[in-house]
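Exercise: predict the fold of this chain.
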Amino acid sequence: MSVPIQPHTAAEAKACCAATYGSDVVALLLGDSYHPGGLALTRRLADRLDLRPGEIVLDVASGRGTTALALATEYAVDVTGVDLSDANVALATDTAQAAGLADRIGFQIADAERLPAAAQSVDAVVCECAFCTFPDKPTTAAEFARVLRPGGRLGITDVTVNAERLPPELAGLGARVACVADARPLDGYAALLNGAGLTITHTERRDDAMVAMIDQIEARLALVRMTARARAEALGVDFDRAPAVLAAARAAIADHVLGYALLTAVKPH
């Protein structure tokens, strides 16, 4: 994938990320779930958070609403999703309405660094594969803590990176898509959340989810190359470069340079 304009400021980086993850090319390669592990890992995260019927959940960087829909239907919680992409918010809203869940799920265009929720107003915050993309992570972590009630829980799944050992193929991709370029090691995320006053309750490596996503992308690339190559190239897919990038990603995972992790935290009483 490629993005025409390289982001230089925090605002440009956020706009670039929103445009990328609201685009058709991402849906073409990733399907409905834009994060490694898909709904299976979402359920694992929800179980670790011990979500209960009637609780209020804030889904930060909610994408096209897949997680919000799953949490509302399977855990009977009320969900507000926030995302910077107006295209994602529109599609997610339509999906919730079509499912008859508009009274329990809502979506808003909003910035993670300025969450549209009152202080101490939500029981749980979920953020899947997005914290790594936020330019001002300390402010975002502080926002997570602000909106949580005392005893409220935070659940994150995200890309982990040893930036000093990241191969150039992945550093370039991350700079364009704002996904890998500012990811942190697992203990780096924990430190950011601790700095916001949250207490880490659980961490686990889920590198297997990253490998499975690479498998999925390779399979979809092969299919799209045969069935819709012109459309994919028009959307920005670089079929010549993709194999090298995916191979570099596999090697980085095997070398524990690139990975994926699940992390939960609680706001102390």
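Check your answer against the key: Residues 138 and 192 are 6 Å apart (CA to CA).
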